[in-house]
Amino acid sequence: MKLYQIIEKLGRPEKPVLSFVGAGGKTSCILELADDWAARGKSVLVTTTVHMERPEILERTGWIDQSAENIRKALETPGVVIAGSRSETPQKIRELSEEVYSQAASKAQAVLVEADGSRKFPVKVPGKNEPVIREDTTHILILAGASALGRPLEQVCHRLEYAEKILGPQNRILTRETLAKLLEKGYVEPLKKQYPGRKLAVILNQQDLLKEPEKVRTAIEAQMSVPVFLHSREEKKKHIHMILLAAGFSRRFGENKLLYPIKGRPMYLWTMERLKEIQKEGLAESLVVVSQYEEILKEAGRQGIAGVKNPHSERGISSSLQIGLEAAGCFKIRDTETYYMFFVADQPFLRKATVENFLSDFEKSGKKIGCMSYRKTPGNPVIFHECFVPELMALQGDTGGKKVLKKHMEEVFFYEVQDPGELEDWDIKLNE
């Protein structure tokens, strides 16, 4: 169901002021609804009481640290006006002052407020002083992402300690029943007491991820005191960001194996140049090389490839993986479904055609994790859907993405290669 239809069903006053709380796509939902209402001739003010992404990151125009008069002027014509104050966090904006908000909101025909933070998790249980709801709010929409269902609570829930107070430490998998309990006890009951008379509803976002969405919605709503609606995210274009890890110490090899010549060329260069060709052909959106070695970074720059230095290679492969994720995130385009694909630089015989066939078959599989394998033994490269980024960013030491892969075997697509030499890591010198 479209968001504007949900608001009509709840009852839309002449001037709605909606607070979006919870997790699992608040900003996207706000912009979707704002665009729908703007297309119907309304002037819509989008703001926050906490923090939200800067307008330019959202690929929007914004009014940051502007006077109430300037914001009011922007609201004189139909459209979406994103307004806020400069935040100490460079990529964020924070709330308007009370005076500026009051004057700006009085001019808008609808106000949409991001009133809660979730740090990209699909589910949240609010802590103390959360969420931050304005008194003029007419509707409070509590969001949760369907991608969280069936997964361990610690992987999908922001403010885990508050969730455990509600469920107890023994409930580790998020089911329909536990999700309903978290939302009812965490949000609905306290919000009803604190903001009587407001329209409250739960929106289960990412309905397209559910096999039987209506059955899931009914089961959750049966345990709650507010209506539950399904929301379908629009089909997103899939983008792949490639990350080449080239920062190892080569301790068993006896010298820097990445610079070791294979058929007259440094080992790392074989993979790097093949990935560059794949990107040029449009099969991947970006390519990032992570290394501690100046020679590799300089060559990446010479070829127009983004190179990022890892100053902490001694911390293990997890540090390179996370630096690569952060760098690749800069290339992410909003409203796209994003995958991150990791390569290692000591597989010089990995063929371009093999990577292309793997990507084609992976997309057809519908899985969220994929890896190449030989005789069912997982190898590199490995690809992850963006929903696994929090787990990847939590890795420590010399632990790579295989740890996350092994936790989610039901989500893994294995691409069998015929030649094991393509996947062989050169940890010791071999005969060429």
From TrEMBL:
Residue span(s) of domain MobA-like NTP transferase: 243-411
Organism for this UniProt entry: Candidatus Blautia avicola
PANTHER family in alphabetical order: MOLYBDENUM COFACTOR CYTIDYLYLTRANSFERASE
Name of the protein described by the UniProt record: Selenium-dependent hydroxylase accessory protein YqeC
SUPFAM superfamilies the UniProt entry points to: Nucleotide-diphospho-sugar transferases (SSF53448)
Pfam family, one: NTP_transf_3
One term of GO molecular function: nucleotidyltransferase activity
Domain of life: Bacteria
